Amino acid sequence: xxxxxxxxxxxxxxxxxxxxxxxxxxxxLGAADAHTCDRRVHDGxxxxxxxxxxxxxxxxxxxxxxxxxxxxxxAGDVFNLYSEEFDRNSIDGFGMPxxxxxxxxRNYNNAFWNGEQMAYGDGDGEIFQTFTELSxxxxxxxxxxxxxxxxxxxxxxxxxxxxxxxxVFGAMTQQxxxxxxxxxxxxxxxxxxxxxxxxxxxxxSMKAPGTAYSDALLGQDPQPYHMDFYVNTTxxxxxxxxxxxxxxxxxxxxxxxxxxxxxxxxxxxxxxxLQKINNPHATFGDWAAQTLDASIELYGAGSYEMxxxxxxxxxxxIDI
Length: 320
Ligand code: ASN
Ligand code: ZN
Fold this sequence. Notes:
The protein has helices at residues 4-7, 25-28, 66-86, 134-147, 156-177, 236-239, 245-258, 265-276, 284-299, 304-315; strands at 39-43, 53-57, 98-102, 111-113, 118-120, 188-189, 204-205, 214-215, 219-220. By secondary structure, the chain is α/β, with parallel strands linked by helices. The chain has two domains: 22-132, Elastase, domain 1; 156-315, Neutral Protease, domain 2 (Orthogonal Bundle), CATH 1.10.390.10. It is globular. It binds asparagine and zinc ion.
């Protein structure tokens, strides 16, 4: 991949399908299994209805609405990551359109994947200022990838694994778009989306779960970094956004052992584990074991990659 830099930007190359069509490196090189990106950004007009009005389709010029344009560009970065590093053609692996709605509802303080598309609020301007931030966009799209890879039920530990996969690939997309290796990265998810008066740096920190914010309005970042502090709760689907701190931190620690880029060995292992786990009820232990299998398949039994993966899981209190 000597000329990665030339392809990690817009990825726009002229093709028979039309000038400016967004295609992956595979098609540019004439590969048979071409991946073609099809982004569709809608304006929800601050209403709840989805998808709203189509305002920017694939290949269309920037609109000047920064929510629209960030969603469009961000989805391109996510598409490129999955296509070029994981040979995956869009969310379902078969080139499905990436449908997004911005300006969803009024003062809406969240973003989500609803099973078919992404939606992003503008935030209330106090607690949150926007949700069209690259790690958040990649997080939401990655929920779609989880769904189309067999799924992880959005409750308890399997739900926290679903959340963690979305955070891992959210951070990874951001790092790749900025050309950051694992030591240069800040490991924050949702940096810059908090309101101006909120005491915090991001929505979550994979490097130091529990430290992303501490604020009168938002409270204290509730994420644990070790099984000793696992939160048993009925809220948030059994703490899916809370206990995800544990597998998030395991991924971070593993990256610290390996160095390089997150989408290389660690990302390859996490992606393969998702494709192979075939257990929507997976626990943290099931997932850790699946990543260990993937590390052996990819790098060999007894490899440094396998041994350090075991150490990373053990450090967060999961014995494999
Ligand atoms: N932003 C949240 C997420 O993607 C929405 C939710 O709770 N499902 O995890
Ligand atoms: Zn999520």
